[in-house]
Design goal:
Elements lengths: L1 H26 L1 E7 H11 L3 E7 L12 H8 L3 E4 L8 H8 L4 E4 L7 E7 L2 E7 L6 H18 L4 H27 L7 E3 L6 H7 L2 E3 L12 H14 L3 E5 L5 H10 L2 E6 L14 H17 L1
The structure holds zinc ion.
């Protein structure tokens, strides 16, 4: 009797496992995201149906990334690739070609109104597109819509799931947006200035009313010249900029020097182009905003 019950349980278990693993194989798709912030957004929208591999991981610098053979293998095995676009991933086109990737490429920033700036390069003024559009939550909503539509195109059967996940996530983003606007609007106008090492907060500053000064321009590829640094030091002193912020993806030495020479205080570390590891203060896109706004308001209100 006992053995028969056990046998029945065994059969039932086999059926359950069989169904579960069958469903797993049939219902999930493989996606690659170029960097950690985008990877989190794809996970939020994809939920259990999407296996996401992120190329440039936590604290990584996507401006100067060098893809690995493992990246090419992951990409080749994927149905869909998500990139930021706006010139952020200069290394991607070559990786796509060399990997033999056959899936769809979704540019998450499609529809964003790009910010451009003039930068000096070898004595010539050059117009450069600022890729850091995710730092405005309103753009984040566009990213989510593009991710949702991309996933639906690659996996029709998951349409209802992607729509529901995206709707829920869009609500969370809108809620965070209201919180961010309220927190930063409460800061005195003459204190809403900050220094970061590379210019990753252009969209953030424009959206939330902050003035950003950055010695390195919109990419981490070029180093600030001694002249740039001297100019910024004069500007900080003249405008009484209250705080200098480190970034999780860049070397801290330049900003240490600027803080020393100007007396501006170090306002902590901002997450600009990458999330923190899971146990850090900014393991998701929305956590990144909560952390950054917390650090900014703490440094600027005191
Ligand atoms: Zn950047």
């Amino acid at each position: 009797m006992q053995s028969r019950v056990l046998m029945q349980i065994g059969v039932a278990l086999a059926v359950v496992l069989g169904v579960a693993s069958g469903a797993h194989a049939a219902d999930t798709i493989k996606a690659v995201a170029s960097f950690s912030i985008l990877g989190d957004m794809v996970k939020q929208v994809g939920g259990d149906r999407v296996e996401v591999t992120t190329l440039v991981g936590p604290d990584g610098d996507a401006h100067v990334y060098e893809p690995t053979p493992a990246d090419a293998r992951n990409l080749a095995a994927s149905q869909i690739l998500f990139i930021n676009g706006l010139g952020f991933e200069g290394w991607m086109e070559r990786l796509e070609k060399s990997s033999g990737f056959k899936g769809n490429t979704i540019v998450a920033s499609t529809g964003v109104k790009p910010r451009t700036m003039i930068e000096e390069e070898g004595g010539h003024a050059k117009t450069i597109t600022d890729p850091h559009a995710w730092q405005n939550l309103d753009n984040g909503k566009l990213y989510v819509a593009n991710i949702r539509d991309g996933l639906i195109a690659a996996d029709r059967a998951g349409k209802a799931v992607y729509e529901a996940n995206a709707a829920k996530y869009l609500d969370q983003i809108a809620e965070e947006e209201a919180t961010v606007k309220q927190a930063l609007a409460s800061l005195p106008k003459d204190r809403r200035k900050l220094i970061t090492s590379h210019d990753a907060f252009g969209y953030f500053g424009a959206a939330y009313g902050l003035e950003i000064i950055a010695p390195e321009g919109v990419s981490t590829e070029s180093e600030a010249s001694a002249q740039d640094v001297a100019k910024i030091i004069r500007q900080i002193k003249a405008e009484h900029v209250p705080a200098v912020f480190m970034e999780n993806i860049t070397d801290h030495r330049l900003l240490d020097q600027i803080a020393r020479e100007t007396g501006a205080k170090i306002g902590g570390e901002l997450y600009t182009d990458a999330l923190s590891p899971a146990d850090g203060p900014a393991p998701s896109y929305l956590d990144m905003f909560r952390h950054n706004v917390g650090a900014l308001t703490a440094a600027m209100s005191s």
